[in-house]
Amino acid sequence: MNNSQGLLAPTTPFTGASGPLVEARNVHKTYVIGRRSLEVLKGVSLTVQRGEFLALRGASGAGKSTLLHLLGGLDTPNTGEIWFDGKNLSEFSRWALPTWRNQKVGFIFQAYHLLPELDALENVCLPARIARTPAAIAEERGRDLLNRVGLGNRLDHKPYELSGGEQQRVALARALINDPVLIVADEPTGNLDSHTGEEIIDLLLALRLEKQTTLIIATHDPKIAARAPRALELVDGLVSNGVS
To answer: With contact defined as beta carbons under 8 Å apart, do 63 and 41 qualify?
Structure first.
């Protein structure tokens, strides 16, 4: 990523504050599809420290996406617990959990998940508007973030008018709009060519360092996983190299 695209990468590494931010404790997750039960996670435990960058590796179907959804509060385990900043997510009410998720977690998906009827700025501002941030403040943040990811001249473009890499940059800006303490990224380069994917990862890591945000990436790409100080591999619903 070069400076002409609106971002200066920090030069000082961020090691993060001490103490765990998120924990999975003996988590099991099974989906029932018709008459069939599919056990995806079979007792996963892990701890992620504040400010850490963790990569989750594994083949398709290993349970990476399911685990990310659980850690980010998008889904709940059948048994086991997810803890975030000392709080058990299972104890949150059905109304409190979405509010917590909106304020604390930023999501980046392989398929972007932009709303087609909204332009780039509106898509980025959506989580802030859900959080009842005043429109003028949300738009100021959104414009700044889109400038930072090199899309200052694409504010009014709809998703169908943007390339895949541009759409993922919009999704990255959207994930950061509420200053989350945790970003979960599910195969964020999976739909991109290698060059564009590398630019997205460069952007994500630079912004993460700048904002001192905890980051968990699920990927099957060994090059991306190698950039993380710590990587865990999921195999058949289990962490293959023990609990970290």
So the answer is: yes
231/58 Cα distance (integer angstroms): 10
pTM assigned to the model:
0.87
Compute the distance between CA of residue 234 and CA of residue 60 in angstroms, rounded to an integer: 10
* C-alpha of 229 from chain center: 17
pLDDT tens for 142-163 read 999 999 899 999 999 999 999 9
State the 10-residue block means of pLDDT for the chain, 244 residues long: 38 52 95 90 94 91 91 94 94 91 94 95 96 96 93 95 94 94 92 88 89 91 91 89 46
Question: β-strand 20-33 against 79-84: which pairing, if any?
Answer: antiparallel
Look at residues 118, 177, 127, 123 and name the one whose alpha carbon lies nearest to residue 148. Answer: 177
Question: CATH number of 17-239: 1.20.1250.20, 3.40.50.2300, 3.30.420.40, 3.40.50.300?
Answer: 3.40.50.300
Residues 6+ apart with CB under 8 A from 14: 51, 208, 209, 212
Q: Which two tokens stand for residue 83?
A: 């803890």
Residue 67 contacts residue 59 (beta carbons within 8 Å): no
Nearest alpha-carbon partner for 168 in 142, 141, 187, 153:
187
Where exactly are the structural domains of the chain? Answer: 17-239
pLDDT in tens, 3-34: 334 343 333 344 445 679 999 999 999 999 88
Edge-to-edge strand ranges of the sheet holding 105-109: 105-109, 182-186, 214-219, 53-57, 230-235, 238-239
119 membership: H or E segment, kind and range: none
Length of the chain: 244
